[in-house]
Every structure is written in structure tokens, then in C-alpha cells.
Amino acid sequence: MKVVFFAAALIFSAAALVTNAQTPVTEPSPEIATTVGKAPDWKLPVVSRPPTDLLVTQQPNSYSRPDANTRFKRYINSMVGPMALAKQVVGAGYGTWRNSPEEWGGQWEGFGKRLASGFGKNLIKQSITYGLDETLKLDSHYYRSEKKDVGSKIKNALLSPLTARNSKGKRVVGIPRLVGGYTASIVAVETWYPARYYWKDGAKSATYSLGISAAYNLFKEFVWKK
């Protein structure tokens, strides 16, 4: 009797399976699909991207690298511009007043030698700085601090002689300015300066120049706003 009952159950189950196989299958609801162990064919909602004009990208600063024409004009101006000429005249006058180097004398002849020396050093310095700026895609030009507090202005003035800006406006080591300044001073003492001068004197002079540049930057930050 048990065998007959078990056989009948098997026949009934087989018939049910055949009936289900012949019946058209419609998309099951999530509840039914979960019950029979079949994952529902759900589609994730498509999330559209917001308009690009609503996306705000934070910039580190408002720096924009000058074009090639502007950079070249700055290079020329750094050698023969009004401020460049004034610096050389003041430097030659100060050297004549101190009679340094003393071999050049303390009169007009000595003033002329010091003025020519200053022009020569500046020509080498600016040419090397400009060339390396173009090669390394840097900008050694001085920019006033965008922040108005005293601490930020002082920091900007003191760091500028040692740094440059990359294409994104970030401060990096000022290789062009440093190489240009030290090379110019060392070449000067090894060529047209009196024989008692050595390359170490040139390196010392270049270091002094960095300090003078920092002081001049402070003047531009707090006094001369042009």
C-alpha cells in the first residue's frame, strides 16, 4: 500500500512539472522569484550625471601662466627695463662709495667698471633664468601675495627668491633663479674681477643677492604697490 501511494505521488509530481513546462512563463514578481530560488531580472535605475557647469572644481589659486610673448617681454625688461637700469646704477654707486673692488678705484672710472660689471652679471643671470624657465615650464617672476595679512606677505616675500611657480601655480624650488644667480656671480669673479677673487667669493655674493631680493620684495609688498 505504501508503495502504491509513493508511486502515485511521483506520478502527480511529474504531471505537475510537465504542466508547468508547457505553460508560458511570465516575468515573476520579486516575491515568487525569491520563493523558487530564481534571482529577479531587476534593472538598476540609471542616475544621470549632473551638468558640468554645476560641478565646482576648487583651484589652489588664481594663477595663470603668462603667454610666451609676455614671458619674453619680462625677460627683456629684466635686463634693460627702467627698474633693472636703476638697480645697476645704485649698485655701481654703492660699490664706488665703498671702493669695492678697490682695484677699480673710487672715481668715475671705477663707477663705470662696476656699472659694466653689474650689467654683465645681470645679463648672464636673466638669460639663464629665462632659458631654464622655458625649458622646465616654470615661472620665476615675482607675484605679490594674494592674502592680505602681514604674515602671508612676509612669507611670500622671503620665499620668492628661492622658489618658482609651475604651470598650476604651485611653489616649487626655484632652480632657474638659483642657477642663474650663482652662475652669474661665479663667472664674474672668475673672468673680469681682480685676480685675488675666487669662485667662493662669487657664491657669497650670490647669497647676499638673495637677501637683497627678499628685502626688495618686502618693499614691494608693503610700500610700493605699483
Fill in the keyword field for this structure.
single chain; 226 residues; mainly alpha; two-stranded antiparallel sheet; 61% helix; 3% strand; globular; disordered N terminus
In words, what does this structure look like?
The chain has 8 helices and 2 strands; from the N terminus they run ααααααββαα. The chain has 226 residues and is mainly α. It has a domain at 68-222. It has a two-stranded antiparallel sheet with strand order 1-2. Strand 1 (163-165) and strand 2 form a beta hairpin. The N and C termini lie far apart (113 Å). Residues 1-28, 30-36 and 50-60 have low confidence and may be disordered.
Count of beta strands:
2
Provide the β-strand percentage band.
under 5%
Strand order of the largest sheet: 1-2
**Total of DSSP H or I helical runs spanning 4+ residues:** 8
Low-pLDDT ranges = 1-28, 30-36, 50-60
Question: What is the radius of gyration?
Answer: 39 Å
Q: Residue share in helices?
A: 55-70%
* Helix/strand structural class: mainly alpha
Broad shape: globular
Mean pLDDT: 82
Gist of the model:
The protein has eight helices and two strands; from the N terminus they run H-H-H-H-H-H-E-E-H-H. The chain has 226 residues and is mainly α. A two-stranded antiparallel ribbon has the order 1-2.
Summarize the helices and strands and which ones pair or pack.
Blueprint: H1 2-22, H2 30-36, H3 68-80, H4 82-98, H5 108-136, H6 150-159, E1 163-165, E2 171-173, H7 175-191, H8 199-222
Antiparallel strand pairs: 1-2
Helix pairs in contact: 3-4, 3-5, 4-5, 5-7, 6-8, 7-8
